[in-house]
């Protein structure tokens, strides 16, 4: 979908006019292209402790690692440990894992403040902190939980397509755990273009760093439901770009578009109604027979049947729940009990910000999407013994055929109701899905990652 | 018997003009009682006739034959018949040309004539005999290649209302019962003109509605030999190289028109019939049988 | 030089191997003038190929050969199959050729490629067929065509004027494609009406067969049987001709359409005859080695095939009766009888085509006199006949029907063998214009 407003405020006369009128100034977002650098410029790593040193070492270390050493494969970035004046930073990583009292936040936070004005367009602020728990000393918990409010507010202040996101480590998870590095890298990269103001928790040191950051899904077989169009088609394309062999699934009636998607991504098309009782068995049989394995299942198929609850019909309620949550539960059960979904498997489900914050007219949809959030939280632990996990992605306003049908004015308002002041693209959702499907996300267990440009509703 | 050797096969168009004049003369002569009552004792002959390849192809395509270098028996008729026709326009021929109706035709083909072969044609009239509605006569044409008889055609014509001496034999024709069809010919309005173009037979009854009306037909009618040639083509390769091909013409086919046909094995050869499916009345019936 | 002693010929054992049906794909068949009214043969064949490629992950694959065809074809489509391959997701280095055997085109494509695979000449192949009656080729009249050709050959202005002067206004009227038999001038329906009358097939029997076809095809769709056999196209997601709600009462109300001029009652209606249909189908074939290398499940083996033809021109047999002669020869060569077949697929050109075929096989006299047997050839168990419906319900885009039947029955054979673990066989029989018939035996792989 074209966002005409976004184009207008970024060009010529209309750009100037918008500035003078104080209209929202959405910036074109930088998006991932293979072969482009992770970040466009120097990266400032703030923080004093050994976690900051360890992380800075990875960011600055040579690609390929030192021969014969156990040092991690470095990312070869231009890393500064102290802000130098007049430097335009592409990213700031604020390591706060060692703060024990709210008083200790001032140092790194104010150091961050000094470089924000010079942050590059599309820049990144990433905090790395530890989770506050009821067992913590009150001051420790206060400091750790304070990061949450800090990050969310900071993100709202960023402009020019810059984003702020946080990685929250549970107790005992090292800063160099695969999922910590994976999450930091995801937030630094253009893959997270429309993820803003989010804190993603790393639960364990499970998972593995990929042999290639450009093709983390090499050799993996992924099923994407609802793949014929929109976000599903983009997920299929993104997983394939990252190296996965894709089985594109959609209802038989969508077969023509599904075939086109499968052919574009060099995968296979499986015409299947996910609500069929044997859908899980058929998906597994197809993947095993045609591709020898099944590693990733992306539950993307979903429908909306909007109605105020007072006007809700059983038909509208049942069909939404059947497609959006019941089918996922049934397919997961089939996969989990098959014994053939046990080699570091990944389930990624599509939730929605409606499932978090609620949306007028979408009680059925929000119930199903809230259900997805609960489902992945409870499913992930079942996969952990196999090195697997399940997580969800909750999109906000995404420019799709579906949102294109929203009345024009409502659509314009909906687009601006987030920190990036624009709608996301299907590929933004797909990138988050691809990250959660990757080997590096193995330590992220049952979480829901929002892809909403920091929508003003909900958490 | 006198033999008249013609320099070439005469054009039928000119013969029709002469025939029309002769018909007029004959009518006058009959009124004054000096019309001839016997056939001229004469044989017309043309030597060294050759077919033209384009002409042959046009004929073959029109009647549904494939364009081989063997002349269809009906095409030999087209080439040889004007020689016989020349006999019919002689002043001493006893029947009026205009109004003569082609009622039957019989061809014996001993061997096919090839495109590269020159052949000689001899033709005469014989067997003038009474018929229940007039008088009939046989026009015979023989075709020889290198002196050997390869093709012999006998075309029977009826002069309606012309009474000569003698009584007709009272052979009653079998009532026609329409059989199970095997096919259908859809004949376009210009079928007469198109066959006229390949056969040279520009009899006005085949050419336009107006000229046909002048001669008593509501519309143009198809050439009998055209329908007979299509039937022969429908018989196909089973007819072999040596065969007899006989046909009787009944009700004329008005153009445009649809003829329901049956062409099917029958005894030693193949029988064919064409009829009007609505009235059940026949247009033509005939057979093709191996010669021997 | 002394002549070298002649070597004795080394006898070579036949080294043929199995040719497998590995899958298929078609687009839903649409009624003429319906969803595909503006789609060309090439559009539809490309869509069917692309769906096959998507289902089996053949993107960029160089297939041994693609053989397909159309019965009604534009002259611009002289290389229809190759052009469709070039427009598809297959490798552009995939060779292709066109096949045409009227309504048997699709099955002949399967048989031809299967034989090449058996010989070791090919490892893989895609057979197909497509037809549109909505976008049928309209030609200029013969006279206009000849005149235009002569004009292009004319050298002087005078010659050109003379040639052009031959044209008459009516020569400019277009010539619609003929569906009549060229040698008899009768349409297929009129021919079949003669055969129907000859065998005394009743209206009721025909309507019952048509009803069964619709009911069985509808049931297969409802069960999702076609989910991995069909890819939608242009918004058409099911066969457009399918009438799941038809009934004997509705069928009985239709007026006869063929055989009106015969002295027996006309029994053939639009309900028990196939309508004009647009569509395309493909079948993926390969050797055991190729299937294994591509992780494809063999569904069926193409065992053998037999063609036949009848002399309908001279009324010896009905136009569509050739399979009646082909099947006894085919089964005898393979040491089989009708009882050895678990599935019998007889293309429903008309309901009465199937019924006259069965009647001829059940006739003692016909068996003795025409088939050279001791008596009747045999009886087909109706429960094994066209189990998922056939052309009466699905429609019949001429060249696409063979591929539809082969893919459908191959899937069914595989399913049955999985369930019962014993050899399972099917007969496929397709009648065609020109008095042709093509039949084949498939066996679950």
From TrEMBL, chain A:
SUPFAM superfamilies, sorted = NAD(P)-binding Rossmann-fold domains
| Positions of the Ketoreductase domain | 220-396
GO molecular function per UniProt: oxidoreductase activity, acting on the CH-OH group of donors, NAD or NADP as acceptor
Entry similarity comment: Belongs to the short-chain dehydrogenases/reductases (SDR) family.
- Coiled coil start-end: none
Q: Which PROSITE patterns match?
A: ADH_SHORT
Annotated source species:
Cellulomonas biazotea
Under the heading InterPro entries, the entry gives: KR_dom, NAD(P)-bd_dom_sf, Sc_DH/Rdtase_CS, SDR_fam
- Supply the name of the protein: 3-oxoacyl-ACP reductase
Q: Which residues cross the membrane?
A: none
Q: List the lineage, top down.
A: Bacteria, Bacillati, Actinomycetota, Actinomycetes, Micrococcales
Automatic annotation (TrEMBL), chain B:
- Per the database record, which ranges form the MaoC-like domain? 189-264
Q: Name one GO cellular component term.
A: fatty acid synthase complex
A Gene Ontology biological process noted in the UniProt record is: fatty acid biosynthetic process
- Which superkingdom heads the taxonomic lineage of this protein's source? Bacteria
Molecular function in Gene Ontology: fatty acid synthase activity
Recorded hits in InterPro entries, A to Z, give: Fatty_acid_synthase, HotDog_dom_sf, MaoC-like_dom
Q: Which family does it belong to?
A: Belongs to the enoyl-CoA hydratase/isomerase family.
| Annotated protein name in UniProt | Acyl dehydratase
Automatic annotation (TrEMBL), chain C:
Q: Where are the transmembrane segments?
A: none
Cite the CDD domains for this sequence. thiolase
Which residues does the entry assign to the active site, renumbered to this chain? Answer: 103 (acyl-thioester intermediate), 396 (proton acceptor), 431 (proton acceptor)
User: What superkingdom does the record give?
Assistant: Bacteria
The UniProt record lists the keyword Acyltransferase: yes
Q: For this UniProt record, give its keywords in alphabetical order, as a comma-separated list.
A: Acyltransferase, Transferase
**Positions of the Thiolase C-terminal domain:** 297-443
Q: Thiolase N-terminal domain spans which residues?
A: 21-287
List the Gene Ontology MF annotations in alphabetical order: acyltransferase activity, transferring groups other than amino-acyl groups
Spell out the GO cellular component terms annotated for this protein, sorted alphabetically and separated by semicolons.
Answer: cytosol
Against InterPro entries, the record matches this protein to: 3-ketoacyl-CoA_Thiolase (IPR050521), Thiolase (IPR002155), Thiolase-like (IPR016039), Thiolase_C (IPR020617), Thiolase_N (IPR020616)
Mind telling me which PANTHER family this protein's record contains? ACETYL-COA ACYLTRANSFERASE FADA2 (3-KETOACYL-COA THIOLASE) (BETA-KETOTHIOLASE)-RELATED
> What does the sequence similarity comment in the record state about its family?
Belongs to the thiolase-like superfamily. Thiolase family.
Please state what the protein is called: Acetyl-CoA acetyltransferase
Task: Give the organism the record lists.
Answer: Cellulomonas biazotea
Gene name per UniProt: atoB
